[in-house]
Amino acid sequence: MRDLVTHRGPDDAGSFVEGPLGLGHRRLSIIDLGSGHQPMQTADRRFTIVFNGEIYNYRELRRELEADGFLFSTQSDTEVILNLHARDGATAVARLNGIFAYALWDASERRLLLARDRAGIKPLYYATTAAGLVFASEIKSLFASDIVHARLDHTRVPEYLMFRQVAGPETLFAGVRSLLPGHVLEANSGTAGHPTPYWNALEMPKPFAGSFTDAVEAVDRALGSAVRRQMIADVPLGTFCSGGIDSSLVTAVAARNAGGIINTYSVGFEDPAYDESAYARLAASACGTKHHEIRISQQEYADALPRLIWHHDLPLNFANSVHIHAVSVLARREVTVVLTGEGADELFGGYPRYYIPRLLRYLDAVPRTALRAIGATLSRSADHRLRKLGAFARREPLERLLFNCATADPDAARTLLREGKVPELGYRTGRLNTVLQNVSDPVTAVASLDFVTYLVSILDRQDKMSMATSIEARVPFLDNEMIDLARSLPIGYRQNLRHRKRVLKEVALRYLPADIVNRRKSGFGVPLASWFASAGPMAQLVRETVNSADMSEVLNLSTLRRYADEHGTGAADHSDLLWPALNLWLWRREFKV
Question: How much is the pTM?
Answer without folding.
Answer: 0.95
